[in-house]
Amino acid sequence: MRTIGLIGGMSWESSAEYYRLLNELVRERLGGLHSARCVLHSVDFADIEELQAAGEWERAGELLADAAKGLEAAGAELLLICTNTMHKVAGQVEAAVSVPLLHLGDATADAVRAAGLGRVGLLGTAFTMEQDFYRDRLAGHGLDVIVPDAEGRALVHRVIYEELCLGVVREESRTAYQEVIAALVAAGAEGVILGCTEIELLIGAGDSPVPVFPTTRLHAQAAVDAALR
Q1: What is d(CA 222, CA 52) in angstroms, rounded to the nearest whole number?
Q2: Pairing of strands 119-123, 191-194
Q3: Which of 67, 107, 126, 169 could join 41 via S-S bond, C-beta 3.0 to 4.6 A?
Q4: Which of 38, 82, 165, 196 is catalytic?
Q5: What is the distance between the alpha carbons of residues 159 and 99, in angstroms, rounded to a whole number?
Q6: How does the average pLDDT of the chain come out, rounded?
Q7: Phi, then psi, of 38 in degrees rounded to 5
Q8: Rounded CA gap, 19 and 178, in Å?
């Protein structure tokens, strides 16, 4: 089993899900008392969020690249950035290390294509929904990606940062997300990508009339596949 390096803390709520999923998936594959070999660098999300808000992505990329170097030095043989949004700086992270980075967008797109779908809705932070870095990665796999309208994007973003990143799960927010999903389906979405690692704390398969693609779980599954390959 190869050692998985996790660049986490963005937020730690979803990083905890990564850790749980990696260990559960390894146990399912290998049985007994097996668990995942992994090392975690958990950043202070407040520092990263300030850089996001200020548009200082290069500086944020430097911080994650330094984390990646530390993980490689600690024995990581493959890396995960445990957040969709910070894949904006995936190139900086990849350039800093010699071990492979498993891109969350690739793992997600592979799952969507395997399900036979081509047009998907994308939920995530405003950065993920509105900027090109993530949508273009998905489009590179042949997917047609649509996002909520401005009001929907603002709602989805607010719930992520003001609630889910703080471990707050509200039923009224679940209902609001369901309304956003319904609008995406009405616009032709055949499935919905939960393109923020915290959204899985709020939305599951039963909350959508079309398939949902939980990026945290998909990323963890890809990591375990690679670690055991």
Answers
A1: 27
A2: parallel
A3: 67
A4: 196
A5: 35
A6: 97
A7: -150, 155
A8: 27
Run of H or E residues at 42: strand 38-42
Q: What percent of the chain has pLDDT over 70?
A: 100
Q: Examine the residue annotation and report whether 83 is marked as an active-site residue of this protein.
A: yes
> What residues contact residue 59 under an 8 Å CB cut-off, 6+ apart?
51
121-137 tens-digit pLDDT:
999 999 999 999 999 99
> Sorting pLDDT into bands at 50, 70 and 90, what band is 194?
very high
Query: What would the pLDDT profile of 143-191 be if each residue is shown by its tens digit?
Result: 999 999 999 999 999 999 999 999 999 999 999 999 999 999 999 999 9
39-76 pLDDT per residue, tens? 999 999 999 999 999 999 999 999 999 999 999 999 99
pTM over 0.85: yes
**Residues forming beta bridges with residue 146, ordered by sequence position:** 121
Number of residues that this document lists for the chain? 229
pLDDT in tens, 67-79: 999 999 999 999 9
- Annotated catalytic residue: which of 82, 83, 108, 215? 83
List, in order, residues 6 or more apart from 34 with CB less than 8 Å away.
Answer: 26, 27
Q: Of 120, 70, 67, give the one whose Cα is nearest residue 89.
A: 67
Token pair, residue 226, equals: 């690679």
Query: Is there a catalytic annotation at residue 82?
Result: no
Measured CA to CA, the distance from residue 77 to residue 146 in angstroms comes to: 35
Which residue in 196, 186, 50, 207 sits closest to 129, CA to CA?
196
Q: Among residues 52, 74, 105, 106, which one has the least CA distance to residue 7?
A: 74
